# Entry
Amino acid sequence: MSSLCYFCPNCICPSSQRPVKRYKSILRGIFPKSPGEEPNEKKIGKLCGYISKNPHRVEKITKILDRKCYNALRNENFYIASAVLCIYRRVLLSSREQMPRFADNLLNIIQTLLDQTRNDEMRILGCHTLFEFINSQVRALGYKLRFTFKVQLNMTDGTHMVIIENFIPKLCDLALELGNENRVCSLRCAGLQTLSSMVWFMGEHSHVSEEFDNVVSAILENHERQSKEAKDSADSTSTEYVRCPSVHKMITLASSSLGAMSRIPSWNRIINKKGELNLTLEETKNPSFWSRVCINNMAKLAKEATTIRRVIDSIFRYFDHENLWSSQYGPSLSVLYDIQVAMEKYGMDVFFL
# Structure
């Protein structure tokens, strides 16, 4: 019987002949080879299935994804970074029970994307990913998964709450972006969309952030633009009401606000069961629409006497600071109508009165 020498180089299997881990093989097939190509959706689905069956591999997979993403951003290969975020977003939807294993990595990547001031697409991608991450915090598919995830959420919620709140200043800056209207419209929508989920997240946990005043300012600044358009429309038709034009303007603003707010769907209709947006393209590209969604979620946040005081105080401080109480110069009437309509819809108008 021949013996095997473990110190003989011929007996050692070279690395090129060692079997490749399955997740590495799957990852290799996902990424596009050129900027014009899309990530391999079929391979992403296989990776999600692999993660659900092999949760102990999540840490190694995230290390590979993080390294690829940061290298891509450093070398300005943004299509690779987009593919990494595409993978993370699919994992958020399909393997939410594994979120505690990769949440910190994903939030760090989002922070890096929001810092890409020279690339608007990366900042928008970061906003959309954060939007989906926040929604996945308390939304789950099925009772069993929901119960399991809530147990995990209670252990990590405090940490994630603090980290998520650190994004508020950057999101507010995006919502108030200045420049060419065609360029900044997408940035404002992305910022407001993420702020809407953040306000909703606060409402789910009855928690009002210390940065809430800045959130309110960003939301109402965009709401004010729509109010000015309604005011201009009222000015053009008020010539028939010479006796009392200010009353006619107030009625026009109130009716337009009431009509617009009644068209805002509930959060459960905006986000479907799969965690995806259920809106038209026109709605997703409209900052005014997202500002009203934010106001709608602010009304839901004010479901207790203490929280409504916090919400209303922030709104009033904004009106005071910008001198917007006058019905001729500010959106105060429109905003208060929106808040009242939303609270009546949720049956919480008793606190408002």
